[in-house]
Amino acid sequence: MLWRAAILALTASGLTACSNAPDTLEQRIAMLEPHISVQMPQGASEPVPAVLMFSGCGGVISVQQDYAAIANQAGIAALIVDSHGARGIGRMGARLTVCSAARLRGDARAGDVMAALAYARSLPQIDASRLALIGWSHGGWTLLDTLTLAHEGAPPAGMEALPGNALEGVRSVMLVYPWCGFLNRARGHDVPAYPPVHALLAGNDVIADPRACGDLFEAQLETGAQIDWQVLAGLTHAFDAPDEPFDPRVRHDAQGAAHAHDWFAERLASGFLAGQR
């Protein structure tokens, strides 16, 4: 039965978490590297900027490929990070454990962000001084947790230590309908004043409440963070994902997706034209 499978999965993930020693940065890179898709713009002869992509709780779907194509057209590399594949988490396992926050919460997946950034910096075809991050839903939660951990110098859950250059080269952080609920670390911890954060929220989102994000962002503005956000009226969670598994709470919207694609391209352009930090 489905409920029995869920209980077994949760128990197994809990036992695994208890038995594993914290990862070093090198171990996390080694785990992730086979599951990072590096997509380069055509004709690049010199190192190019890069945007690192982190999917929602269900795993990598075509929406990441759509945004990667936009980045490539602008002369920017895209690195799609498959956190789920690196852990052998399939679609059903993701729905039962990751989407329920029983496994791989934002503060733990933040270690993947640190490792993916370190990996990107090691690639000769990538300009390590011009990096951006984008996360959808659970990936947005992950990026907010990553920012708070870097600001405090604290290691992500499951990691031995925080890299000394955790956010080096990161000029822009983009969030698309992020989870800002009670487990989001940014609800009680500050994000740094740099890099700037840009968010796109869906007005009719009943999965990741845009009001929770608005409250969180308002609070962060008071502490000196650079955050701007848009709320797209009438759209649902995952409005830009044409192949999202059936969910009555989710509806693809072609016009909304086009707006999100333009927003993404504009944020990339403005972020990479900004002065270095």
From TrEMBL:
InterPro entries, A to Z: AB_hydrolase_fold, FrsA_esterase, Peptidase_S9_cat
Domain of life: Bacteria
Signal sequence, start to end: 1-21
Stretches assigned to coiled coil: none
Pfam families linked to this entry: Peptidase_S9
Keyword vocabulary terms for this entry: Hydrolase, Signal
GO molecular function, one term: hydrolase activity
Record EC number: 3.1.-.-
Tagged with keyword S-adenosyl-L-methionine: no
Domain (Peptidase S9 prolyl oligopeptidase catalytic) ranges: 69-148
Protein name (database record): Dienelactone hydrolase family protein
Organism encoding this protein: Glycocaulis abyssi
